[in-house]
Amino acid sequence: MLLVAPFLSFFFAFLLHVVNAENVYNSSEAYSAGELGQTPSQSFYSSNYTPAAWNWVVESNDTANIPSGYLFMALQGDDTVQPGAVIYDSSGELVWSGADYGAVTSFRVVSYLDAPHILMWQGNTTRQGIGSVLLIDQNYSIVNNITAGLSIFLGTILIVTKRAEFTSNDTTLTAAYRAVNMNLTTYGGPENGWLYDSVAQEVSIDTGVTIWNWSAIDHVDARLCYSSIGDHDSSEDDPWNFFDLNSIEKDNSSNYLISSRYCSAIYYVSGSSGEVLWQVGGANSSFTMGNGTQFFYQHDARWNDGQQTQISLFDNGGTDLVTNETTSRGLIIQLNFDSWTVELVQEFLPYTSQVSEDQGSIQVQSNGNVLMGYVV
């Protein structure tokens, strides 16, 4: 099954009311050729919502290897008829629409107070994005609006990015850009320049207290990253974004796995000191990268096993300015801490070879299937 959309997730039942769609396609040549428009949509007898329509590559009645549950999608794009949160059933029909929330990301089910809740980031998705994290209960009521303490971190104003994660300790992990005025001559920029520092925070849902702060510029050498300072004015209106933190995960050791798009690297960060304990990929990798393991401008880096030796990630392979690979792909890589090498476990290629210039996700299902989403 090929789905062209970011942030895809299967989850179990969530007190939903199903409505019936008219248009779900099976291997439609007209769909693939664009004869149905750039963004084919569904229409409903019981609803005036217009979520994206699916085009199955595998027949929709071939469900033997599809896990039960619902598909959560956060749809974006200028051509999207209805951007925002959508829940589908496994046949591609609409179950619930969150169109009233507008554009969202990080749309998923989490467990909070021993009950399933929806976690989503809501806000302005232009540029870095300004918004907040919502926690929604089984009755679709907002039980918490998590704005965190980002706006007062180090006494500066930040632009909150479109990232939100959840931990088993009832905390959220959020990221933001902090505009910093500094001398950029070391990096080939102006003496009185500006950069965007990627900031990570862990915040208590119950109290709103910030538990942990981390600053990329304090711990990563920007000269080892691949975002050209010449592509920006390095002014207050157009700071140099050298890092671009696009995923964060906390482990049982209270350390953090942080993905940097523009450094093409994944960092393992100490929860106590903020020190980078090691990195995989990028210009200063702690590991020797094996055949097929090098990635570029990646997203959605996650631990894939309980031993914390496997990582899944979405390898974009390029941006709108740079192309390093012929196609984006999903990856599972194995870290060897004895030899400090990385081996390829498996790669997952899209139905049609293409580079996703921005965003993307990969999720390993409980039955071993892998669900990928990307922007084209």
From TrEMBL:
Pfam families: Arylsulfotran_2
Keywords: Signal
Name of the molecule in the record: ASST-domain-containing protein
Entry-linked PANTHER family: ASST-DOMAIN-CONTAINING PROTEIN, PQQ ENZYME REPEAT PROTEIN-RELATED
Stored InterPro entries: Arylsulfate_ST (IPR053143), ASST-like (IPR039535)
Source taxonomy: Eukaryota, Fungi, Dikarya, Basidiomycota, Agaricomycotina
Protein's UniProt keywords contain Signal: yes
First and last residue of the signal peptide: 1-21
Keyword Signal among UniProt keywords: yes
Annotated source species: Guyanagaster necrorhizus
Top-level taxon of origin: Eukaryota
